[in-house]
From TrEMBL:
Pfam families listed in its UniProt record: PadR
Coiled coil: none
Protein name: PadR family transcriptional regulator
SUPFAM superfamilies: Winged helix' DNA-binding domain
InterPro entries named in the record: Tscrpt_reg_PadR_N (IPR005149), WH-like_DNA-bd_sf (IPR036388), WH_DNA-bd_sf (IPR036390)
Segments forming domain Transcription regulator PadR N-terminal: 11-80
């Protein structure tokens, strides 16, 4: 799954008010990156790029136990940028040529059992679906929504796995030389 636009996410978070890089990272990780938290280097590289592009500005500098802590604020250009980003639809991922399809075809071409690949993948999908269902049941509405999104995609993948399994003989005839 592609990583979301971190810069625009920071801009959206900064619309609520100025913030330090550390606080932006913490808020991002809590709301969006629970499974894949940001590295500090990525946070400060992103803030540097936003600063260089005039989308944020340094709102204040405070002394700390280590280096000085900069507080960042969104600029008018940053507000325009995040507004434009929010209004643009995301391109749906079509996955027209995915790794799983490649594995199935290669198994057929090399005389290996493609059904084993499909069965192994089905088991992994079901395992992940159980894990997401537990997370959904234990969490609040944000967890419900993010888990539902993932679960719906996994359900579509399972339908594809079943359909492919039912068509393996036909696929083997079409891909073998």
């Amino acid at each position: 799954m592609p990583r979301m636009a971190i810069g625009q996410t920071f801009l959206g978070l900064l619309e609520s008010g100025p913030s330090h890089g550390y606080d932006l990272k913490r808020t991002y990780d809590e709301r969006f990156g629970r499974d894949r938290p940001l590295a500090y280097g990525q946070v400060y590289a992103t803030l540097s790029r936003l600063l260089r592009n005039g989308l944020v500005e340094v709102d204040g500098i405070e002394p700390g136990g280590g280096p000085e802590r900069k507080r960042y604020a969104i600029t008018d250009a940053g507000i325009t940028d995040v507004r434009r980003w929010l209004a643009q639809p995301e391109k749906p991922d079509l996955y027209l040529q995915n790794t799983l399809y490649t594995k199935v075809v290669l198994a057929l071409l090399t005389g290996r059992p493609a059904t084993e690949i499909l069965d192994t993948q089905r088991a992994e999908h079901l395992r992940l679906m159980r894990e997401l269902t537990r997370r959904k049941n234990d969490g609040g509405l944000p967890d419900h929504l993010i888990c539902d999104y993932a679960l719906f995609h996994l359900e579509a993948d399972l339908r594809w796995l079943e359909l492919t399994a039912a068509r393996l003989d036909q696929l083997a005839k079409e891909v073998r030389p």
